[in-house]
Write a structure and sequence with these properties.
The chain is mostly helical. The chain is built from ten helices and no strands. The structure holds heme C.
Length: about 200
């Protein structure tokens, strides 16, 4: 044993090297943790570190950002004075306008009865499909939405009769428009169907 202490080499790495390895193993562990989600999703650990962060109350990525109200906005307490609110023509004093009535028809009726009222709207093939719920439970498909131009000419050939038909309940397909639209809107639509200069019957 001569001068053995001088030749002694410690078996542990120097401090800087050791902390490097500690750091490396933490980083590696973190990666193993994130990739091995199954461990965490099966709730083996009471604290879930990465995979389920979106369930955390503090982190709501699924919510859109919120807009702050305008600085000088006021709380709504009542409708404004007629002189200062939007001037939309009052339905009761509105006279028949084929552009307004045509829009009402297109929005509410054309999906079934077609843009020109021939009964060929986009929804027709679904209504009459032989694989519809109606067809499979009743044994035969539902009837096609009728041609409204022809109806105005031959069947519901008075505006009042058609108005009452459209307002009421008419089977499981066509909505009961008396519960959806104002009377004036339904009358506008019926006028548009009968209109032989600019409407459907031209
Ligand atoms: C979801 C589809 C659908 C929509 C939307 C729809 N209808 Fe109908 N409509 C039908 C079907 C189907 C019939 C056949 C009546 C039945 O179900 O027995 C019908 C029948 C009618 C008839 C009777 C015609 C006749 O001679 O027998 C009139 C009139 C009519 N619709 C007008 C309208 C008007 C006006 C609108 C819009 C305000 C409208 N419909 C919206 C599906 C629709």
């Amino acid at each position: 044993m001569n001068g053995s202490l001088a030749n002694f080499k410690p078996i542990t790495a120097p401090t800087s090297k050791r902390s490097f390895y500690v750091l490396l193993s933490i980083v590696l562990l973190a990666f193993i943790n994130t990739s091995a989600c199954a461990v965490q999703e099966s709730n083996t650990y009471p604290v879930e570190l990465f995979s389920e962060m979106h369930y955390s109350q503090a982190y709501k990525a699924q919510e859109p950002p919120r807009l702050a109200p305008l600085a000088d906005s006021v709380v709504f307490v009542s409708t404004g004075h007629p002189d200062s609110v939007l001037r939309v023509p009052d339905k009761r004093s509105r006279t028949y306008d084929p552009v307004i009535a045509g829009n009402l028809y297109q929005v509410n009726c054309s999906v079934c009865h077609g843009m020109t009222g021939l009964g060929d709207g986009k929804a027709t093939r679904h209504i009459t499909s032989s694989s519809s719920f109606y067809a499979t439970s009743e044994g035969e498909p539902y009837k096609s939405p009728p041609n409204l131009v022809e109806s105005a000419a031959n069947r519901l050939n008075e505006r009042e009769i058609m108005f009452r038909f459209v307002s009421g309940w008419n089977g499981p397909v066509m909505p009961e428009f008396g519960k959806i639209l104002a009377e004036e809107d339904i009358r506008d639509i019926v006028n548009y169907i009968f209109d032989d200069s600019t409407g459907l019957s031209k």
